[in-house]
Structure formats: C-alpha cells, structure tokens
Automatic annotation (TrEMBL):
<dbReference type="Pfam" id="PF00106">
    <property type="entry name" value="adh_short"/>
</dbReference>
<protein>
    <submittedName>
        <fullName>NAD(P)-dependent oxidoreductase</fullName>
    </submittedName>
</protein>
<dbReference type="InterPro" id="IPR057326">
    <property type="entry name" value="KR_dom"/>
</dbReference>
<dbReference type="InterPro" id="IPR020904">
    <property type="entry name" value="Sc_DH/Rdtase_CS"/>
</dbReference>
<dbReference type="InterPro" id="IPR002347">
    <property type="entry name" value="SDR_fam"/>
</dbReference>
<dbReference type="InterPro" id="IPR036291">
    <property type="entry name" value="NAD(P)-bd_dom_sf"/>
</dbReference>
<feature type="domain" description="Ketoreductase">
    <location>
        <begin position="3"/>
        <end position="187"/>
    </location>
</feature>
<comment type="similarity">
    <text>Belongs to the short-chain dehydrogenases/reductases (SDR) family.</text>
</comment>
<keyword id="KW-0560">Oxidoreductase</keyword>
C-alpha cells in the first residue's frame, strides 16, 4: 500500500523540501499551507510522479483543520506520517520592544496550530499503528536561550515537551513521536522574522555555512523510515559553524 505523509507549511523551506524528498521515494503527499499558488506550483512539479492532494490551510483555524482532515480523499488515508512543520518566529527585538500581537501569532501558530493538526490526525495515525510517525519541528531555540528569542523559544520548548508527553500517551499504539530541533538553516524563516528584510536575511546566511532545507528534509525522511520498532525522541542538528553562546555579564563601564 502507498504510504501518505501530511505536511504542514509545505509552501517553503523545510516543508517544501520534505515534500520533494518523500515524493522521490514514492509517497503520496498531502501538502498544506496558506499560499495556494505555491501549493499548486509544487503539485505541478510532483504530481506526475506521485499522488498529491493540496489544501490551502491556516493551522490556526481549528475548524478548517478538522474539515481538511475529515475531507481527505481515501487514497491519502489513513495518514502514515504527520510532519508538524508550519511555524514562524517574529520580532527579533528584545521582549520589552515587541508588539504583543507578534507573541500571540507565534503562540497561535507554533503551539495551538500544531496541536490542532495533531489532534485532528491522531485517529488516522493510530489506525496505521506500527510504523506511523508524528514529526514535530522544534528548534534549538526551545532549549538554548538567546536575546530576541523570548516567545519563539518558549513555543519550541512546548513542542519538545508536548512531543515527549504525546509519546507516553501513544505508548502501545505503535505511533512514534519525534521532535526534530534544527539550528540555523537558510529558508524564508529570517525574511518572515524581519517582516521582509532581505538584506538582513542575506547577511545572516551569506557570511557562514547554514544548513539547507534539504538537510532537514533528509532527517525527516530518515526518522519516518526507520524500522517500526525504533523511535528517535529528539534530534538536535546544527551546522558545524554554529555553537551555543556563552554567559553574558552586565559590567560597569
Ligand atoms: N530555518 C531555521 O533556521 C529554523 C530553525 C529551527 C526551527 N525552524 C522551524 O522550522 C519550521 C519551518 O520553517 P522554515 O525554516 O522552513 O521557514 P519558512 O521557509 O518560512 O517556512 C515556514 C512554513 O510555515 C508555513 N506557515 C506559517 N504560518 C502558517 C500558518 N498559520 N498556517 C499554515 N502554515 C503556516 C508557511 O506557509 P504559508 O506562509 O504559505 O502558510 C511556510 O510553508 C518552523 O516551525 C520553524 O520555526 C526553522
């Protein structure tokens, strides 16, 4: 039977690269995101090789998520792998300078959106049982604090703990749960975070060697295709040229 993967945030970055990686291996794809034209472009690119079902979907819209899952065509159901990838960071400024609305957007997307999709797809994943996987995209920001990470890092800490807790609840069903926590990777992430500052994005990535979207998609594919008796709980991955910052001390002049 053809396996199907449900990807949130398939219009860019990790999600789009994951769609291509799973397509290479012949999986059926359910591709979701808010930008319809991007979804259609990807469908045009991949649908001569594999079955593709696209859904314009904002993960924050609980009713729309439920409807999208309930209306999945039979050929894509049950879903073998869920990749909870949709997410964003906003407002790189210190907390005290940030608009509350940006905090709400991150919580609504990275936390509430992720649980909306997970909740809707749990019955399908449990129906598959052994070999099914939930891959949640966390971040190094969920473990390691830095200036300007405030609510973003906190949402990714939620993703990590939710992944572990889900794993406990799903114990016995065969469904696996993994938190993939990437460090710096070049995608549209910084463009979104800076609200369209291409120069800031270029400066961040062009002066070093960040990971690529394909690097992360490869990890997603690896995790999803491990033998059914194995579960990677947490997979933290960074480019070699990135390490943790040290302690910062406020000193007298
Ligand atoms: N790049 C990094 O350095 C990095 C590091 C660690 C973790 N991450 C995490 O990796 C994930 C993917 O990010 P990326 O780096 O690939 O960035 P990206 O290129 O900006 O892609 C983000 C994706 O999320 C989707 N998305 C955002 N808000 C959404 C919403 N409300 N509903 C549905 N989809 C939504 C976007 O699609 P639409 O705009 O079309 O909806 C887009 O497809 C995120 O969770 C991010 O936090 C990134």
């Amino acid at each position: 039977m053809t396996k199907s993967v449900f990807i949130t945030g398939a219009t860019s970055g990790f999600g789009r690269a994951a769609a291509r990686r799973f397509a290479e291996a012949g999986w059926s794809l359910v591709l979701t995101g808010r930008r319809r034209e991007r979804l259609e472009e990807l469908e045009g690119e991949l649908s001569d090789r594999v079955a593709v079902h696209v859904v314009e979907l904002d993960v924050r819209d609980e009713a729309a998520v439920k409807q999208a899952v309930d209306a999945l065509p039979q050929a894509f159901s049950p879903v073998q792998v869920l990749i909870n990838n949709a997410g964003l960071a906003l407002a790189p400024e210190p907390a005290q300078e940030v608009a509350l609305e940006d905090w709400h957007t991150m919580i609504d997307t990275n936390v509430k959106g992720l649980v909306n999709v997970t909740h809707a797809l749990l019955p399908s994943l449990i129906e598959v049982g052994a070999g099914a996987s939930i891959i949640n995209v966390g971040s190094t920001a969920g473990k390691w604090p830095y200036k300007g990470s405030h609510v973003y890092g906190a949402t990714k800490a939620f993703v990590e703990q939710f992944s572990y807790n889900l794993r406990c609840d799903l114990h016995g069903t065969g469904v696996r749960v993994t938190d993939i926590a990437p460090g710096m990777a070049e995608t549209e992430f910084t463009l979104v975070r800076t609200k369209g500052d291409q120069a800031a994005s270029d400066q961040l990535y062009n002066t070093t060697t960040p990971m690529t979207a394909e690097d992360i998609a490869e990890q997603m594919f690896y995790v999803a295709t491990l033998p059914a008796h194995l579960n990677i709980n947490f997979l933290e991955i960074q480019p070699v040229r990135q390490v943790w910052g040290g302690m910062v001390v406020d000193r007298d002049e």
